[in-house]
Every structure is written in structure tokens, then in C-alpha cells.
Design goal:
Elements lengths: L2 E12 L2 E12 L3 E5 L6 H9 L6 E6 L8 E4 L13 H6 L14 H13 L15 H13 L5 E5 L7 H14 L4 E6 L11 E6 L1 E6 L5 H8 L10 H5 L5
Parallel strand pairs: 3-7, 3-8, 5-6, 6-7
Antiparallel strand pairs: 1-2, 1-4, 8-9
Bound molecules: adenosine-5'-diphosphate (ADP) and magnesium ion.
């Protein structure tokens, strides 16, 4: 696998509070990377550093592919998204074609076509004229993913994508991401990895430090170290579902 993003000896904090300490992480082409860790462990912060929204205190983030830093799609944590913004599904997805440096512009015909194509692919075309504030959690999550896909990203970062959706939507999302992963790199950040336990290529555990990065087979001892509490108390059956079955 070809390495496309390298996080090297990264330190970051807010004001004086250190949040990430000496984090090292490689992300590969067509990787399915699962980043797990407890709430407050620094996962969202790490994504924002990779996206360039935050600047490291120390250390580096290197990109090993032409323009890869401009080809990163981002689906933010659901709770941070203002659902009351009055906009149709179509316009919401179309907005994904805007790059941050070019905010005021007319949409090109190709961009409108691309939006139609993505809506169709994600089975969202039938709700294109609905207002986003009328959608269920699962549908809105898919609209946000559609928006991140219209710009043809090579890497898609999703922050807690299963947090506010029902089990059926979680499984649909998992299958959809797996299909997408045939073409692009997927990075899922979650405090509850249950839905992704069987499908990742690499897993990284972040709780201030990066405790593990590899191909899986986490054991209870490591999870205890990362989550900082006895695994029995974690709930959701995380440790069991996370242990990859030996083939
Ligand atoms: N904008 C901010 N200003 C100050 N502290 C923050 C900010 N965002 C997050 N934090 C703190 O940084 C730590 C890591 O947060 P975060 O990256 O959101 O963790 P996670 O995504 O793993 O739940 C937490 O202690 C959180 O309270
Ligand atoms: Mg978070």
C-alpha cells in the first residue's frame, strides 16, 4: 500500500492544554482506517489538523501525492452541524463543489450534473427538493456524505458518522463506505466502532497519545489502556466485536 499522508511527531493543544502528544500515523492509498478512542481523546482535533483547520504546535503532516491535501473530503460530526439552516437537499449537495477560496460564484453546468449524479448514486434524488431540516438523521447523514463526494475526493474523513443514526442506517452506511473504499481512502473516527469492527484495514487508538496503529487484533489490555477504564465497563460489547476473527 502506498503511503499518502504522514503524521509525524505531532503535538497540539488548545491554549495551554496538551491534547495530542507525539502522534505518529500513516494513511495509505485505499486504506480503510478506523480511528477509535474515548470522548475527549483528541480524535476530532486530529482530523482538523490533517485538514489544515488547526496548525500543529510541533511536528509535521506530510502529503505524498499530488494535490492530495486539496482532495480530502470531510463529513463533520453530526452534532456540530446546524440543521435549521433553510436549504434544499439539492443545493446543500451542490455547495460541496465550492472550494473555500471561491465562495461567490456561479455553478457550472458540470457541477449541477455531478450533483444530480451523486444524488442518484446515493438514492437521494427523490428528496432533492426537500428542506434538510425535515430529514431523519440517517438521510441527513447521507446528504452530508453526498456533499463531500461531489468534489471527487481521494480521501474521505468521517467524524462519528454513526452517532445519531439507527442500526439499519448504520449498516447501510457501512456497506456504502466499503463500496466507496474500492476507489478511495476512507478514514472513520468513532468512539463506538461496533459497526465497523469487521471491515477496517488499519485501526488506530487515540487518547492523547496514539496507542496502537496496525491491522487489528486488539486485545483487552490495550483497550483498557486507551479507554482508561476496565473494558467490562465500556458497554456496547466493543472489545468482543473489535477483536478480529482469526481466519
Ligand atoms: N475549540 C476547543 N477549545 C478548547 N478545547 C477544546 C476545543 N475543542 C476540543 N477541546 C478539548 O480538547 C480535547 C479533545 O477534544 P476532541 O478532539 O473533540 O476529542 P474527541 O473527538 O476524541 O471526542 C477535549 O478535552 C476537549 O474538551
Ligand atoms: Mg470528536
Amino acid at each position: 500500500m502506498k503511503r499518502i499522508i504522514e503524521v509525524k511527531n505531532l503535538y497540539f493543544g488548545y491554549e495551554k492544554n496538551l491534547v495530542l502528544e507525539d502522534v505518529n500515523l500513516d494513511i495509505f492509498e485505499k486504506d480503510f482506517l478506523l480511528i477509535i478512542g474515548p470522548n475527549g481523546g483528541g480524535k476530532t482535533t486530529l482530523l482538523k489538523l490533517i485538514l489544515g483547520i488547526l496548525k500543529p504546535w510541533k511536528g509535521e503532516i506530510n502529503f505524498y501525492d499530488d494535490n492530495i491535501s486539496k482532495k480530502i473530503g470531510y463529513v463533520p460530526q453530526f452534532s456540530s452541524f446546524n440543521k435549521n439552516f433553510p436549504i434544499s437537499v439539492f443545493n446543500m449537495v451542490l455547495m460541496g463543489t465550492i472550494d473555500s477560496k471561491n465562495f461567490i460564484k456561479k455553478y457550472k453546468k458540470e457541477e449541477i450534473e455531478k450533483t444530480k449524479e451523486i444524488l442518484d448514486k446515493l438514492d437521494l434524488y427523490y428528496i432533492k427538493d426537500e428542506n434538510i431540516n425535515s430529514l431523519s438523521g440517517g438521510l441527513l447523514q447521507r446528504v452530508l456524505i453526498a456533499r463531500s463526494l461531489v468534489a471527487d475526493p481521494k480521501v474521505l474523513l468521517l467524524d462519528e458518522p454513526t452517532a445519531s443514526i439507527d442500526i439499519t442506517s448504520q449498516l447501510n452506511l457501512r456497506d456504502f463506505l466499503l463500496e466507496l473504499n474500492k476507489k478511495i481512502t476512507i478514514v472513520v473516527v468513532t468512539h463506538d466502532p461496533t459497526s465497523f469492527a469487521q471491515i477496517y484495514d488499519h485501526i488506530a487508538c487515540v487518547n492523547r497519545r496514539l496507542f496502537y496503529h496496525g491491522r487489528g487484533e486488539l486485545d483487552a489490555q490495550l483497550l483498557e489502556k486507551v479507554y482508561g477504564c476496565p473494558v467490562e465497563l465500556l458497554g456496547h460489547g466493543i472489545p468482543h466485536t473489535l477483536l478480529k476473527e482469526h481466519i
